[in-house]
From TrEMBL:
This is MoaD/ThiS family protein. It comes from the Bacteria. InterPro entries: Beta-grasp_dom_sf, Mopterin_synth/thiamin_S_b, Sulfur_Carrier/Prot_Modifier, ThiS/MoaD-like. Gene3D superfamilies: 3.10.20.30.
Amino acid sequence: MALIIFTQQLARFMPVPQLVTHAATLRTALDELAAADPRLGGYVLDDQGRLRANVVAFIDGQRCRDRALLDDPLRPDSTIHILQALSGG
């Protein structure tokens, strides 16, 4: 099962469990997340179902390809990291 891991910065605002999924794509995994925990899902996905601007997803060390489609494939042993996007100068 693929593992979803959240950044610890998010733990300041809500519980951030590690989650497991049988999903075949990032979209399916994040939709399952939003259904299971709407508050956490709302942090990750906007009202159009896209990755929020302040969130980045990495699958097995590679940044997801499309923030709207989220169609990146997952392997059964994939690790998904959900991070806050950082900016600044």
